[in-house]
Automatic annotation (TrEMBL):
Residues annotated as domain EAL: 24-278
Full-sequence portion shown in this chain: 420 to 711 of 712
Designated name of the protein: Response regulator receiver modulated diguanylate cyclase/phosphodiesterase with PAS/PAC sensor(S)
Length: 292
């Protein structure tokens, strides 16, 4: 039996312990120090406008290269971060880092982009999110229109009155709010009117089913109808094939995101990506390059 200390808690690894439970504890124990040790990074994935093919928004996505565990996928460590509430500190860091990055791109002559930052239910429940957003906007000096927050339905579920007030306050600052992974949560349509949303992101499970499962395209069409009626823009995520791109564009999606266009990339690679999607726009403007 191995005794393993985690902060002020003790965990016992026994021979019979499920390997999944062991892995969870290992991930949690490493994640506790990941932020302080500078192991977390943000990558950025372009969201492409259907109308003109330009990239106006990029989504910030966490990447973790742990010296002990190697690359760990967000699909694995985000749930651990949520359960341990490490997500509050990590989410705070992500918000600040993404806004600083946008400021840096702008200072080095890239066309202005908006960054979409994922926000967890815990950050919304904490009640300090509007204040944090205001502080970060002030510190980085970016325009509120250059920031978007992505919330999931689960974030809206827990204490939705309180959550709705936070979102309202954030949206009044001029920051846009998107509902992420639409269709995978409880999908109570009440959230769509109760929350001050600007955008819906159709989950990639529906995009994935488009060519095979007629039900997926019915859901996509219905979502677009609903969004249009409510004045919301629609982004489809997980677009991997030309066929999906054509179907989603014809159905009326405003913007598309997925490996077909680009995977999430390191910040230094974004300039080249923007060039690829809108060369004219970048070079039409005087280019200011930071010196020193
Ligand atoms: P999400 O917010 O729905 O982000 C989209 C996910 O789909 C990303 O996975 C992205 O890399 C992946 N993706 C994009 N295009 C394609 C495609 O064409 N095909 C496929 N199969 N996948 C595609 P990733 O980066 O692994 O992140 C997973 C989830 O982790 C995110 O889902 C989000 O819920 C969460 N996450 C990531 N960063 C943060 C963060 O800073 N804060 C919080 N709270 N959650 C985060
Ligand atoms: Mg997202
Ligand atoms: Mg999503
Ligand atoms: Mg998703």
């Amino acid at each position: 039996q191995i005794r393993h200390g985690l902060g002020n808690r003790l965990h016992f690894f026994t021979a019979g312990m499920d390997t999944r439970a062991r892995r969870w504890i290992e991930v949690e124990s490493e994640l506790r120090h990941a932020l302080a040790r500078g192991e977390l990074q943000l990558y950025y994935q372009p969201i492409v406008c259907v109308r003109d093919g330009r990239v106006r928004t990029v989504e910030a996505l966490l990447r973790w290269n742990s010296p002990a565990l190697g690359w760990v996928s967000p699909a694995e460590f985000i749930p651990v971060a949520e359960e341990s509430e490490l997500i509050v500190a990590i989410g705070d860091w992500a918000l600040e880092t993404a806004c600083r990055q946008v400021r840096h791109w702008q200072d080095t002559g890239l066309p202005a982009v908006r960054v979409a930052v994922n926000v967890s239910a815990h950050q919304l429940a904490g009640g300090r999110l509007p204040e944090r957003v205001r502080e970060v906007l002030e510190r980085t000096g970016i325009d509120p229109g250059q920031l978007e927050l992505e919330l999931t339905e689960s974030a809206m579920m827990s204490d939705s009155e309180h959550g709705a007030r936070q979102v309202e306050a954030i949206s009044r600052m001029g920051v846009s709010v998107a509902l992420d992974d639409f269709g995978t949560g409880y999908s109570s349509l009440a959230y769509l009117s109760r929350f001050a949303l600007t955008k819906l992101k159709i989950d990639r499970s529906f995009v994935d089913g488009l060519s095979r499962d007629p039900k997926s395209s019915i859901i996509v069409d219905a979502t677009l109808g609903l969004a249009r009626g409510l004045g919301l823009r629609v982004v489809a995520e997980g677009v991997e094939t030309e066929e999906q791109r054509a179907l989603l564009a014809a159905a009326g999606c405003d913007a598309l995101q997925g490996y077909l266009f680009s995977p999430p990339v390191a910040p230094a690679a974004l300039g080249a990506l923007i060039d690829r999607f809108a060369p004219a726009e970048r070079y039409a403007k005087p280019r200011v390059v930071a010196i020193g």
